[in-house]
């Protein structure tokens, strides 16, 4: 099976992916910010590096999904190919940080790749308000995230909600991160596990 965790920057994707991988003994795949050759440049000069960064992500995630489907183990993935295509790239385009020519090129590439990949068996969406995102981003203290603006997070949240409201590719579980503090409360994590068990049992 392929389980995916989606959500805005700071919503807790990596933490939940880690906790669920440990609980279920699933293989965890993370978004590796440290190995990304474009991320630091992007945060310093978004307009120059937005297209390069998005194509890099698209390539990485497409390769990952193909690998997941070949393997025999259940995999849990931190962030999905859909988020790049429906949230981050269109947001950069609407902010004037990616040209229409580049965005059209990018999106046609995504549409082609999407014909070769299957959606996750279960999508877990972490819904969080902007204040919660800001608090969690500050807690982890990544240098390249210090310049992220509140209006940027707000725009992304709006796009996430629009995407999730029309998501029909597979099973979907929504977790309200403002009220479910799974990272510090084992009972809250237990609630998520029970919901996942119910969804997974329905997959067979």
Secondary-structure topology with pairs:
Blueprint lengths: L1 E6 L5 H12 L2 E3 L9 H6 L1 H25 L4 E4 L2 H14 L5 H15 L7 E6 L2 H11 L9 H16 L5 E6 L9 H16 L3
Parallel strand pairs: 1-3, 1-4, 2-3, 4-5
Helix pairs in contact: 3-4, 3-5, 4-5, 4-7
Structure in words:
Helix content is 56%, strand content 12%. It is of the alpha/beta class and 204 residues long. Strands 2-3-1-4-5 form a 5-stranded parallel sheet, sandwiched between helices. It is globular, with a radius of gyration of 17 Å. The protein starts with a strand and ends with a helix. The model has no long low-confidence stretch (mean pLDDT 91).
Question: What is the gist of this entry?
Answer:
This protein has 8 helices and 5 strands, in the order βαβααβααβααβα. It is of the alpha/beta class and 204 residues long.
CATH architecture: 3-Layer(aba) Sandwich
- Quaternary structure of the protein: single chain
H/I helix tally: 8
Report, as a whole number of angstroms, the end-to-end distance: 10 Å
CATH class: Alpha Beta
The CATH superfamily turns out to be: P-loop containing nucleotide triphosphate hydrolases
Mean pLDDT reading:
91
User: Order of strands side by side in the largest beta sheet?
Assistant: 2-3-1-4-5
CATH topology: Rossmann fold
Structural features:
8 helices; 204 residues; 12% strand; Rossmann fold; five-stranded parallel beta sheet; 5 strands; alpha/beta; single chain
């Amino acid at each position: 099976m392929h389980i995916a965790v989606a959500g805005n920057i700071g919503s807790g994707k990596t933490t939940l992916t880690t906790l669920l991988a440990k609980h279920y003994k699933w293989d965890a795949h993370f978004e590796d910010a440290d190995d990304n050759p474009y991320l630091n440049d992007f945060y310093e000069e978004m307009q120059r590096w937005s297209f390069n960064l998005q194509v890099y992500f698209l390539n990485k995630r497409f390769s990952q999904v193909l690998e997941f489907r070949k393997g025999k183990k259940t995999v849990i993935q931190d962030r999905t190919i859909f988020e790049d295509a429906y949230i981050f790239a269109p947001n950069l385009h609407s902010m004037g940080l990616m040209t229409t020519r580049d965005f059209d090129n990018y999106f046609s590439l995504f549409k082609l790749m999407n014909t070769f990949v299957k959606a996750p068996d279960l999508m877990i969406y972490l819904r969080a308000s902007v204040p919660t995102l800001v608090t969690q981003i500050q807690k982890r203290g990544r240098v390249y995230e210090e310049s992220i603006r509140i209006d940027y997070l707000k725009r992304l949240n709006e796009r996430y909600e629009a995407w999730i409201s029309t998501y029909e590719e597979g099973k979907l579980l929504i977790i309200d991160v403002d009220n479910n503090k799974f990272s510090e409360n084992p009972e809250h994590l237990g609630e998520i596990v029970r919901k996942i068990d119910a969804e997974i049992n329905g997959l067979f």
